[in-house]
Amino acid sequence: DTGVSQNPRHKITKRGQNVTFRCDPISEHNRLYWYRQTLGQGPEFLTYFQNEAQLEKSRLLSDRFSAERPKGSFSTLEIQRTEQGDSAMYLCASSLPGDANSGGKLFFGSGTQLSVL
Amino acid sequence: QQQVKQSPQSLIVQKGGISIINCAYENTAFDYFPWYQQFPGKGPALLIAIRPDVSEKKEGRFTISFNKSAKQFSLHIMDSQPGDSATYFCAASYASGTYKYIFGTGTRLKVLA
Q1: CA A90, A91, A93 angle in degrees (round to 5)?
Q2: Could you report the per-residue pLDDT of A87-99, keeping only the tens digit for each?
Q3: Beta bridge partners of B13
């Protein structure tokens, strides 16, 4: 296993269409995160899973966004009725539970670049 | 209170020079401060991290200086190389719980050969 894998790398869609992204975390990592990064900005937290349970969602995650992590392995992020404002890089990260020393290191994938026309 | 403010927005350094990037935070509950390096088209990669019980941490050419009373921390890159040219993000999180990172806005570093 060489790291967090995300597919597709690029997605171009028309406004109003639905899109789905996939993330395969590092195999032994039970924590999985989705972040969104727009040009010139730092990543913004969207949601977090521990195993299959979605434990936290950001207010940035409108009801058009849904994320799943069946069986605690890979995760999908779906955006329904895409809008031009959804254009961004969607990053997935995974980690092991942190300890007092590490604080929980996040390992990021290369992201899916979404362009909504 | 959740923000992490990062400066400068961009930085140009000569090869062999020292690159310094600064960050400031408000929330005193933050207790884990990583720095990430991001190359174009790639996801952020962890560079170095510090907890507030130490004032400095060094790994190779990278050093984090931490000032708890001022709620500031900085990244120093010694002997900067052209291969260090990338965007650097500071972040803050809680060492317990979700490890939800709050990222700064990034610093685009260019090291001239």
Answers
A1: 155
A2: 999 999 998 876 5
A3: B111
Contact assessment for residue A59 and residue A46, using Cβ atoms and an 8 Å cutoff: no
pLDDT tens-digit readout, B42-78: 999 999 999 888 999 999 999 999 999 999 999 999 9
* Integer Cα distance of A106 and A103 in angstroms: 9
DSSP code of residue B31: -
Residue A108 to residue A5: CA distance in whole angstroms? 9
Specify which residues A50 forms β-bridges with. A31, A53
* Spatial contact of B108 and B21, defined as CB atoms under 8 Å apart: no
Q: What is the pLDDT of residue A101?
A: 55
Segments in chain A below pLDDT 50: none
Give the model confidence (pLDDT) of B4-42 as tens digits: 999 999 999 999 999 999 999 998 888 889 999 999 989
Q: Taking a contact as any Cβ pair under 8 Å apart, which residues of chain A between 38 and 57 contact chain B?
A: 40-45, 48, 55-56
Please state the separation of Cα A28 from the chain's center in Å: 18
Chain A CB contacts of B95 below 8 Å: 98, 100, 103-104
3-state secondary structure chain A: CCCCEEECCEEEECCCCCEEEEEECCCCCCEEEEEEECCCCCCEEEEEEECCEEEEECCCCCCCEEEECHHHCCEEEEECCCCHHHCEEEEEEEECCCCCCCCCCCEECCCEEEEEC
Q: What 3-state DSSP class applies to B84?
A: helix
